Amino acid sequence: MLPIFILLTLLVAAISGITTIPFSVGLLAVITILFKKSWVFFWAFGLGLFLDLILIRPLGYTSLVLTIFVLFVFLYERKFETQTLTFVFFSSFLGSLGYLIIFGYNIVLLQSFVSAAIGVLLFKFLWLKLGPRSETT
């Protein structure tokens, strides 16, 4: 299972270096919602550092944004049913919107929508592959 996530993360990081659509936000939303484990914070921090290196930004900016995004998803999992397509879409959309606004990109609504749609497709794929995860596993 771990090699799949490592390859998926490297693929997302490479694609995020080529295009301005924040695929990493959708990936983190899906991983956070499916697994509900604290290691996702480390995953977000490492992915952010890797993206900072690829995009030639000061180290830590993207890590901070992605880690705060994961924190918000964890905070809202007690108030909402998180393992639904609606929550995945809105969390990916709002996370991507915040990411794009913070880093000063253009056409943020369209890019956020595309990122959220890809996040939903990734969620459906991983949900079928892995099945529902409970907090005890």
Describe, in plain words, how this protein is organized in 3D:
- By secondary structure, this protein is an all-alpha fold.
- The protein has one domain.
- The protein has six helices and no strands.
- Helix 2 crosses helix 5.
- The longest helix is centred in the C-terminal third of the chain and has 23 residues.
- The chain is globular and about 35 Å long.
- It starts with a helix and ends in a 7-residue tail after the last helix.
DSSP helical segment count = 6
The SSE order reads HHHHHH
User: Major sheet: size, sense and barrel closure?
Assistant: none
End-to-end distance, in Å?
14 Å
Pick out the low-confidence regions.
Answer: none
Q: What is the gyration radius calculated from CA atoms?
A: 14 Å
**Shape category:** globular
Task: Give the domain tally.
Answer: 1
Structural class: mainly alpha
Strand content: under 5%
Mean residue pLDDT: 87
Q: What quaternary form is this?
A: single chain
Kindly state the number of beta strands: 0
Percentage of helical residues?
over 70%
